[in-house]
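User: Sequence recovery, please. Input:
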């Protein structure tokens, strides 16, 4: 994330912070190797304070592409995947550089490394683009990780909001998604209570807690 006390939220697209980015990436790889985590979120960062987004967009994209290529080459040595995540600039972070799946896909194409993927957080995607079914289908080949939260409150999937998560989970299954789904939300209660939605979902699918089939038991 860079220097959070100084207002940074990632370094990869921030001009002039390349050395700090490489140092942070090496530290992230060290930790990921220790815990056996094969994926690292390469955070783009914020548009610098006092600058116009449009005026610095070209320089930030160039910096981002160069840093992503460096990251991909380093991560490939560890058999790891780098992830880029669009974060909405309408509610969550007005200054974040990478905001939409379309922007992320265009950058990934320019970078041209197979071990760089899209970290698609459906909370951000819904706020920026909507049209989740079509976007999941269109960007599915690029997706390396999925994150979820209800919109607009960013709470549990069964809290009041815009998204129908049972439908979304079945769509992911039909597309052949076999990765993790990260719960990137703020629980309204404690963690255990906040996972009640998952038990209900398993039961609706005829599964035991833990996702195993009752028939298999």
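Assistant: Recovered sequence (217 residues):
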């Amino acid at each position: 994330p860079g220097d959070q006390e100084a207002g940074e939220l990632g370094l990869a697209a921030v001009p002039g912070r390349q050395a700090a980015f490489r140092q942070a990436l090496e530290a992230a790889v060290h930790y990921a190797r220790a815990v056996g985590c094969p994926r690292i979120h390469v955070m783009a960062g914020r548009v610098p304070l006092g600058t116009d987004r449009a005026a610095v967009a070209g320089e930030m994209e160039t910096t981002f592409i160069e840093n992503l290529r460096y990251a991909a080459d380093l991560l490939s040595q560890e058999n790891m995947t780098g992830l880029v995540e669009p974060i909405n600039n309408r509610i969550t972070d007005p200054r974040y550089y990478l905001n939409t799946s379309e922007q992320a896909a265009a950058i990934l194409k320019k970078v041209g490394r197979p071990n760089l993927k899209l970290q698609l957080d459906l909370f951000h995607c819904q706020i920026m683009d909507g049209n989740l079914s079509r976007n999941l289908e269109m960007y599915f080949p690029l997706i390396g990780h999925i994150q979820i939260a209800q919109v607009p409150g960013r709470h549990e999937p069964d809290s009041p909001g815009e998204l129908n998560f049972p439908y979304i989970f079945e769509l992911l299954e039909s597309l052949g998604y076999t990765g993790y789904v990260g719960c990137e939300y703020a629980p309204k209660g404690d963690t255990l209570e906040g996972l009640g939605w998952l038990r209900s979902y398993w039961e609706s699918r005829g599964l035991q807690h833990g996702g195993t089939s009752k028939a298999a038991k």
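The chain has one domain: 4-205.
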